Structures are given as C-alpha cells and as structure tokens.
Amino acid sequence: MEESHFVLPHATPLDIAGKVGWQAPSNIALIKYWGKKKNQIPANPSLSFTLSSSLTATQLEYTPLEQKAAGYSYDFLFEGKENKSFRPKIDSFLNRISPYLPFLKEYHFRIESSNSFPHSSGIASSASAFAALASCFMELEKKIDPGMDEEFFYQKASFLARLGSGSACRSMRGPMMMWGEHEDYEGSSDLYAVEYPYEIDPVFRDFQDAILLVHKGEKSVSSTTGHGLMEGHRYAGNRFEQANSNLSLIRNVLKEGDLDKFVEIVESEALSLHAMMMTSIPYYLLMKPNTLEIIERIWRYRRDTGLHLCFTLDAGANVHLLFPAQEAEKTNIFINDELLQFCEDRSVLKDRVGSGARSIS
Ligand code: DP6
Question: What is the pLDDT of residues 299-326, one digit of tens each?
C-alpha cells in the first residue's frame, strides 16, 4: 500500500465547532524497533504487547476559522496547564500529517492531554500521546467523511501516529501489534502497525508487565538520537537481521505458548538494543547499576523457582518485568520483597496486556 492511500480526497470541512476524545495505551516492544529510514520508516520490523493502564487521554476541541490559518492554530494543555515545551514536537507532527489531513489549517484546536502515569516517571509517553492525538484527528476526519470504515480508521490512525513517534503506531489495538514488513507476515507494513495476525496461546493474552522505575529523570540520550546513531553503525546490518530472524522464530513460540523460548528471545532483544547503544559512536549507556542488580536477581529467581519472569528494557534504565498471570501471586511477592529496593522511591507501575485505543468522546 502506498502513502497516497491515506490522503483524504477533497471533502468539505465541518462548519460547526465540536469536541472529540480518545485514550490510548503505551506499549512495550518484545522485538525492538531501533534504527529508521527517512519518513519514520523502520529499519527492521518490531512486535509489541499493547498495555492496559498506562494511558494518555486526549480531548480535541475544534472551532472552524473564518479564514484558513497560515500556520497551525492551536492551544496545548498538559494535565490542565498550558505547556509550551511540547509545542516543537506537536508542530513537527502537524507538519508531517497535514498532507494526509488537508483540513488541519481550517480549524483552531484546543488539545488537552493527561497521562495515567506520572509525567516524570521516565516512562516514555510519546507512544500513548501520539496514538491518542492521531485517533482524535481521525474521529474528526470521520465526521467530515462519514463513510469511512473501522479498518481504515485504525489503519490511518496508526499511520498518522507513526509520524509522531514510530512506536506510537503500535498502540492502536491489541493484544500484540506488529509494525514493519516481514516476509513471513502477510499484510505487514512499514507504514502502520497491524494486529499480530497468527495464533497466540492464551498464556500471552493476559501477560503482566510490572514497570520498575529505576530512574525517573530524563534520559541522557533520546530515542530519536539513538535511532540516528544506527546509521553507519558497524553492527547495524547484523542487528536488523537478528530482529527479522527473531520475528520468524517467535511465531511458533507464541502459537505453542513456549515460555522458555519466549524469555530467551525477549531478553536477548533487550540486551541487543542496549548493546547497540554501547557500541554507537558516540557510545553511551542508559542502564544504571540498579538495572543490572534487577536483571541478576531475575535470573537467580528463574533458576531457583523454574518460573518464567523475564525482563525487557526500553531506551532507558527502567525495567519492564513480564510474566504470565498464572505466576503473578508468587512473582508479585518476589517483586515486593527483592526488587522494589532498587527502584526510585520503591516505585512500580503495575500493568498488563490490553486491547488498544478507545473513544472517550
Ligand atoms: C527502544 O518510537 O520512541 O522503545 O520514532 O524517534 O519517536 P521515534 O522513536 P521511539 O523509539 C522506541 C524505541 C524503543 C523500541 C521500541 O519501542 O520498539
């Protein structure tokens, strides 16, 4: 499918004011997107669990302008307060999506957004934020073009969210989303994420994610910078191959409910991601000593109990603990007794696999 598929053909914008609202969850990648080409095209395909309670809720009020604006006319409020620091990111998002939503300059927008998780938690909120905002714009497009079907709505919302932040395209639906073309996955696309198309053993449908907040501050190197450092990276080719081959491997693992193999793929992906950071030029480290303490203890716990707790990492020091719901009772005790001591203020966000974005209009 071509990008042109997502250009709204000439349609008359609404001449009345209104309001729409959407909430979207964050997601956690099992197979990591790391490295990109022009226009937010991923260098390799990725796969994620959609989360459930780590959410952004966004309200979009639109008021038709008397005259088309030269730039974009909008106010942005975060957690009830005007927030200018987000404007450069929103401007760049609006610029990227405007060829597909030609009505953007016909309105004044008031965008109000809030997160269910603390802003300074070190949890990336760009995935949930851009997925929620893209969904709001799609609901407005649907009002202008009411014939649109549900599949197109979600596909284009994912396409638009990707232009805000790559990983955001995987937050539209659940429980698992795949983004990026892969020869074993019919229907996979670089332009938007699709629901994981094959059989998933029930054990993965209610997987738990306890997010350990090891470091709440801003990270020293942003994801966008990190993606950029994959260009000309000496191990880039091998890394992209690894991600592709893990996607081939995980298909049977998900079908069979093979938890041992799942743990191996997921942890190897997380450590390979961080290995890419450590071997970039300039090289950098986002894990903290406590990240490593936690990893060591997870490995010991697995050896001692035979249970299937595993970890994954985003581009930061925090640790996502993934485990099956049927092991939650024992594992939660272990988390409280042994792992919370390594978190800032003993903070943890308890989440689980979820089903994606929904309207709160
Ligand atoms: C390590 O989606 O945050 O979390 O497209 O530049 O906004 P941009 O990057 P972003 O990168 C996420 C990287 C990751 C892995 C992943 O989520 O797949």
Answer: 999 999 999 999 999 999 999 999 999 9
